[in-house]
Amino acid sequence: MTVVGLDDTDSREMGMCTTYAAAELATKIRDSGGRVERLLLVRLNPAVEHKTRGNAALAVHTDLAADRTTALVRETLDLAATDDPKTNPGAVVADCEPDCVPPQVAEFALDAVREIQDRTTATLLADTAGFARLQRGNGRGCIGALAAVGAWAAIDDWTYEQIAYREPERWGGDRDVDAESVRRAAENYYPAVWDTVDNASGYPVCVPRTPCPILYGIRGDDPEDCRAVADAIESEPVDRRATFVTNQGTDVHLRDGTVGSLADDSAYRVDGTVIATPETREGGHVFVTLADGDARLDCVAFEPTKRFRDRVRALRVGDELTVCGEVTDGTLKLEKFAVRSLVRTEPATPTCPDCGRTMSSAGRDQGYRCRDCSTSADGKVERPIERPIELGWYEVPPVARRHIAKPLVRGGFDGAMHPER
Ligand code: ATP
User: Domain check: are 397 and 376 in the same one?
Assistant: First the structure.
């Protein structure tokens, strides 16, 4: 088998997309008599500064010999938007089974999902493993390309995306996709297919807004269901389609961490107790501070997370949480959180058992009394409070979901789930 990793072929301004380059390579391989076992769409660390959009790297698994494949990879890299100096394509060609890459390469792949990697490490590792390396520009794409080669051996949880591409002459123009047909198909196949439409806003999240060649991408747990939804969508002509196996929707970027020991540019799952009333700041971003012992962690739900912010605003001092998200400048950007325990009462001035009126203070440290009835109480009492939030997991809506974040509807979470759709 031959495993090809590809990355960094696109440009925010000039379009292209590495999934398209991989689909094109797959076509070239088939035209050359090879079989394509699978196309892998690997989402790497979303905190990477140089990403164009979703930090995707691609792998193609094929039975075509490595030397013949390498020639096709070279042609494919010509598709890259290298007129943009920020596009630095890289490809790695490995002559081995996808699950038999050296352990260091698999480790590199998982680290590339969870941390920042450097070019020198990627280059040395690829060369030591005896993999062919092709690059343009500064070759930064080799980081993602090597990670894509190692991903199959490193990751267990995989989902699917069925991507439909536009005719090249339409690239950059408005997309013609019938929103009602998208909504209908999404409804029929939910929850096997998820994040197709954001129900509350009606926004078809499967249709990108960028100048890239993608018309729509349908994500889910079952490739047949993803294809069925794609087939049911009415739109402008589809130039080509491809099914990708992907780590989207898996939370593989998250590691367990503790408040006080979180590094920037990585994403964590961490426990803490709310120590300040959530605060809405300029721009509509909602902040909440957690603590674990003496250590503190600021968390934020950004404005685009929309109604998720109401869940954060509903939190109170003393609530115990598990929060998930990427840490930047010491602040955790919330993707989802679990309410582990809720404060159910608050201290209140006692009421008189005879007349029912609120008692008044009897003086410093002397409790409360009712002047009319001469009843008294030693101190404040605990009054039950209504909480507009329950125990369990809450998540951002599909419109604000990171590619790699696992939608609650996929299941496997500890505790009750309150999925957004
Ligand atoms: P596309 O959707 O077309 O793939 P993108 O959003 O994935 O675009 P790229 O243009 O591929 O962004 O740019 C990401 C760059 O960051 C690539 O050069 C890739 O090799 C590099 N990269 C990916 N993961 C890491 C990482 N963990 N550490 C350092 N660099 C990384």
Answer: no
